[in-house]
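Q: Given only this backbone (93 positions), what sequence would you predict?
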């Protein structure tokens, strides 16, 4: 059950990060910012959890929650920014 909670936290944090990234020129629209951010949050959140060793933890410690929130938020922000940047570069050509 704790794994499911971690995944949900990563997706929500990624969606928030995607919305933040979408505030600039690289925005994809509200829905795509949320979806791409959620995917980025899930992917980078899992990577950060594996690196920090909190993926194997069966309890929701403060370190695990912080890892999920930060990894998910940054992952969503970065992926949304990169996808928006690529979309804008392709549209100008």
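A: Predicted residues:
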């Amino acid at each position: 059950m704790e794994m499911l909670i971690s995944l949900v936290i990563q997706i929500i944090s990624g969606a928030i990060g995607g919305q933040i990234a979408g505030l600039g020129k690289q925005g994809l629209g509200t829905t795509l910012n949320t979806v791409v951010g959620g995917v980025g949050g899930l992917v980078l959140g899992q990577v950060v959890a594996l690196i920090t060793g909190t993926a194997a933890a069966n309890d929701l410690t403060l370190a695990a929650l912080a890892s999920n929130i930060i990894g998910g938020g940054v992952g969503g922000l970065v992926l949304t920014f990169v996808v928006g940047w690529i979309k804008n570069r392709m549209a100008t050509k």
